[in-house]
Amino acid sequence: MLVLCGCGGDEEKCAFIPSPEKKATLQFIALSDSLPAIASKQELVNLLTRNPVLRDYFFRRNDYPNDSVFINELYRRFTNPYFDTLLLEVKRVFGNEQELKNEFELAYTNLLYYYPDATVPKVITAISGLDTDMVVTDSLIIIGLDFYLGKGARYKPNMYEYLLRQYTPHNIVPSVMLLNGISTTYNNTDPSDKTILADMVAYGKSFYFAKHMLPCVPDSIFIWYSQEEMKGARENQDLIWYRLLEDQVLYSTSHLVKQRYLGDRPKTVEVGEKCPGRIAQWVGWEIVKSYMRAHPQTTLQELMQLSNADKLFKESKYKPVKR
Fold first, then answer.
1. What's this model's pTM, rounded to 2 decimal places?
2. What are the pLDDT digits (tens) for 135-159?
3. Which are the contacts of 316, defined by CB distance < 8 A and separation ≥ 6?
4. Which of 53, 87, 99, 168 is the S-S candidate for 150 at Cβ 3.0 to 4.6 Å?
5. DSSP string of 279-316?
6. For the chain, which residues make up each domain, given as ranges?
């Protein structure tokens, strides 16, 4: 049904670009060099003792039966010759990591513009040996840079190609902002509403939120679509919408239907052989955009507090048209 090709027409448009009075002060700690430089098990113990969150959440200490097994496994990993090659790859892609730090500072500076009382987390970068991609909390972010080396990487995470597309350097900060946007810290939802529409709107709000933290990042980066898929979705949104209505998706609470339309899949074959996965998330984003066009006085903060998904949908006056 869907022919997805070409480059999205309004793909590169920026959202509102604020002029913050307060710049985020970001504590950025690069540990990428530290792990390959470990020369003894005691040095490893000392480093992990100084960084307990790195130990417990990034390297998942509780997955191991005891401290001895844990330290021996990590020491074996970090002293493997391939780990030096992995560090060289990280250096090739990220350099001194200043660009990554700058993007984090931009995103959190914009977050403070909308939410002056927000917490600016500490950011730690490290190399996990392709074991962990990221850990995100309100106060701490840990990034496994070796997961985000992109297409030219010598070593890649062991996963399907359609999932690998999100693991590029340009996806790191947008992914963190999406996790912020979907969290209950910012995104007010109704836990009793189990419909797919409720999930669509929650995702839509998170995309809208993240786009305002990084206003000029292309939409495709947030949704993990290719530009061809973005163009196809826009040009065929009337057909996508028809299929969602025809299959009675919006008010379904079926886990299976949710997986078909919201879950990570290479394609949403129920819509068309070339329709990308998570298509209902994208439609949720379009609904939220439509709501904000219909209510131009609504602030981002007010939008994020709207918990009634059905009301938001009906007041959005969303009416997909073929572009």
1. 0.92
2. 998 899 999 999 999 988 888 888 8
3. 287, 288, 290, 291, 294
4. 168
5. HHHHHHHHHHHHHHHH-TT--HHHHHH---HHHHHHHH
6. 28-167, 196-316
